Automatic annotation (TrEMBL):
Domain of life: Bacteria
Keyword Cell membrane: no
PROSITE patterns attached to this UniProt entry: HD
GO function terms (MF aspect): bis(5'-nucleosyl)-tetraphosphatase (symmetrical) activity
Keywords, comma-separated and alphabetical: Hydrolase, Iron, Metal-binding, Nucleotide-binding
Enzyme class: hydrolase
Record domain HD: where: 18-131
The protein's name in its UniProt record: bis(5'-nucleosyl)-tetraphosphatase (symmetrical)
Reactions listed under catalytic activity: P(1),P(4)-bis(5'-adenosyl) tetraphosphate + H2O = 2 ADP + 2 H(+)
Alphabetical list of InterPro entries matching this protein: Diverse_Catalytic_Enzymes, HD/PDEase_dom, HD_domain, YqeK
E.C. designation(s): 3.6.1.41
Source organism of this protein record: Turicibacter bilis
Length: 186
């Protein structure tokens, strides 16, 4: 399937604001893929599909996690469920077979320790794409032009601080492991 076909399918699946966010993640992922010498095509596909499961109802997300034996996620905030389910949908509905692309979708919300370049790019692009306005985002955009690991580290530091301050429920262990790992770059 070519990228334009995939784009029009994703557009039909998402509310227009979320589709705009998705196109922002695609554009930022393309730039980062060029800057950090990894496949632009993989970055485009992973970015386009990263939030594909964002609007599935929680009971359906739960069913998909149960079928895939990914029930650990059910112990954490439903806000993180769309990421692993997005990877399942990308595989089942969009016939994506590349495990690096599937993992970039799966870990785009939590991150994880020792990510691949593609995983780091989608994780970071989701946080810094042009529509994002959260405090500190400008500093991370600047870091992203210089050092991918430092930018990922600062994103994790900000996310962990934000989640702790908001009392958003338990922080997923992959998020904590990612922060423990990437702190070395700060
Ligand atoms: O789907 P997006 O809005 O584009 O962004 P995302 O997939 O990064 O999801 C962000 C949401 O997920 C945000 O409300 C914070 C929340 N989140 C991210 N990591 C964790 C988390 N929530 C909990 N409880 N635990 C986490 O580890
Ligand atoms: Fe997301
Ligand atoms: Fe994110
Ligand atoms: Fe997103």
């Amino acid at each position: 399937m070519n990228l334009e076909t995939l784009k029009s399918q994703v557009k039909q699946q998402l509310p227009s604001k979320r589709y705009d966010h998705t196109l922002g993640v695609v554009a930022t992922s393309e730039q980062l893929a060029k800057r950090y010498n990894t496949s632009v095509e993989s970055a485009q596909i992973a970015a386009l599909l990263h939030d594909i499961a964002k609007y599935l109802p929680n009971d359906l997300l739960k069913e998909k996690l149960e079928s895939a034996k990914e029930t650990d996620y059910l112990n954490y905030s439903p806000l993180v469920w769309h990421a692993p389910v997005g990877a399942i949908v990308a595989k089942e509905t969009y016939q994506i077979k590349d495990s690096d692309i599937l993992n970039a979708i799966k870990y785009h919300t939590t991150g994880k320790a020792a990510m691949t370049t593609l995983e780091k790019i989608v994780f970071l692009a989701d946080y810094i794409e042009p529509n994002r306005t959260q405090p500190g985002v400008e500093e991370i955009r600047e870091l992203a032009t210089k050092d991918l690991d430092v930018a990922v580290a600062q994103t994790l530091a900000n996310t962990v601080a934000y989640l702790s301050s908001k009392g958003k429920g338990d922080i997923h262990p992959d998020t904590l492991a990612a922060y423990e790992y990437y702190r070395q770059y700060l």
